[in-house]
What we know:
The complex is a heterodimer of chains A (290) and B (241). Chain A is built from eleven helices and two strands. Chain A has a single domain (2-113, 133-275), classed as ABC transporter involved in vitamin B12 uptake, BtuC, CATH 1.10.3470. Chain A is globular, with a radius of gyration of 19 Å. Chain A is mostly helical and 290 residues long. Chain B is an alpha/beta fold and 241 residues long. Chain B has a domain at 8-86 and 195-241: P-loop containing nucleotide triphosphate hydrolases (Rossmann fold), CATH 3.40.50.300. Chain B has a six-stranded mixed sheet, sandwiched between helices. A four-stranded antiparallel sheet of chain B has the order 2-1-4-5, covered by helices on one side. In chain B, strand 9 and strand 10 form a beta hairpin. In chain B, helix 4 runs parallel beside helix 7 (144-156). Chain A binds chain B through residues 162, 165-166, 168-169, 171-173, 175-184, 288, and chain B through 58, 60, 79-81, 84-85, 89-90, 92, 96, 98-101, 105, 108-110, 112-115, 154-155, 158.
Amino acid sequence: xxxxxxxxxxxxxxxxxxxxxxxxxxxxxxxxxxxxxxxxxxxxxxxxxxxxxxxxxxxxxxxxxxxxxxxxxxxxxxxxxxxxxxxxxxxxxxxxxxxxxxxxxxxxxxxxxxxxxxxxxxxxxxxxxxxxxxxxxxxxxxxxxxxxxxxxxxxxxxxxxxxxxxxxxxxxxxxxxxxxxxxxxxxxxxxxxxxxxxxxxxxxxxxxxxxxxxxxxxxxxxxxxxxxxxxxxxxxxxxxxxxxxxxxxxxxxxxxxxxxxxxxxxxxxxxxxxxxxxxxxxxxxxxxxx
Amino acid sequence: xxxxxxxxxxxxxxxxxxxxxxxxxxxxxxxxxxxxxxxxxxxxxxxxxxxxxxxxxxxxxxxxxxxxxxxxxxxxxxxxxxxxxxxxxxxxxxxxxxxxxxxxxxxxxxxxxxxxxxxxxxxxxxxxxxxxxxxxxxxxxxxxxxxxxxxxxxxxxxxxxxxxxxxxxxxxxxxxxxxxxxxxxxxxxxxxxxxxxxxxxxxxxxxxxxxxxxxxxxxxxxxxxxxxxxxxxxxxxxxxx
Lengths: 290, 241
């Protein structure tokens, strides 16, 4: 029983990381129709930024610096490279964003080396919380609560702000937004930076839980794409549901039969594609663009 | 007083535009003019270039040659957002309501994206009372007529210099068609410059000050509604199915 509760909580933590990455992916796809394989790089850059800043100025400063640095990186990336690929084919988008991800990975390897690194849990967040029969690390619980709050804030941004309104409209009909005078590019850049910042912040915050190396971005990116497909392309709550589902599925399978854990999430994706191709919360026709 | 002095100042001028879909030459030297406050109808059968003309004006399609000016300002080469903010509003044929947003959010979006405000929400609700009752409904939960009202209301919430209406009565029940026609008459009475693309010939002729007829991507006729009404050969050649 203790092992099951532990697995469920671990699945929640891992699933929330997927959610944080997948939310950015799905909004960017919904608004810009951009298949962004570089999104995992934002997680890795955030993790390394947090690591470096935390070593000199403390953990909390690292948590502040990581999303800011990653958001700026994302804006530069968007303005200099990605915007020229918004209207290109998915193949071209995948190739260029995959290329960017590789450049980021190799750059991180050049700077930090290929070894695995992990930031120690800050002293003030160490310890465990008794949850019924098990003692669970306090930092992991705090991390889960923090990510849930973060996702809530992103949702509030989408439903309460003018930019959020433009973005939500843009996920359905980008052309009509422009015909109404809406600056979809500007709104999309903000959303792109926001999604990157969320991934960067979660990358920094998760570094005491999961060790990082230059390939960390890809490790989380691929399951996050599975999450987006399972939840439904372009669906915010689909990403949340898909992330939690995949996280739990992975964790429980690890408990039951660890070698199958990496396979089960793809089996889940295949089943969803077979019986509900639009994803659990996706719509059959996501968008009309012409 | 001369005729030129009586004519309204040209608000929108389309001059010899040529627009293509890939290699297909759709619009061939299309020219038309709309004076400030005028309601002009662009008539023609299905697939002759009416919607393409509107798309070329709003920047949805870019003419390869020719010019589109609004109060003398060149629009060809500008993107859709810039043209919309210059004051050209399109009410598209398919309505293109944001079905994931409520009616209230659809209206708010038009206010948020407007360069300058046009009608107030109170004015919109006065003219389209059914929208007020549907504020909380999603865009896919309202009828075709309500979608058309919402689409027009969305445009009028902005400071519109030229309103482009693409087949506003298409697919609507006769009763709703009469409501939409009434709204178009009110728009005309409000002095809003309008280019009306309409298959419903008699509906268009009833409100238009002038007409153009387009066929196979070329303007074939320019004149008054009375001329169209009285020229059976013209109607038979270019308008009857």
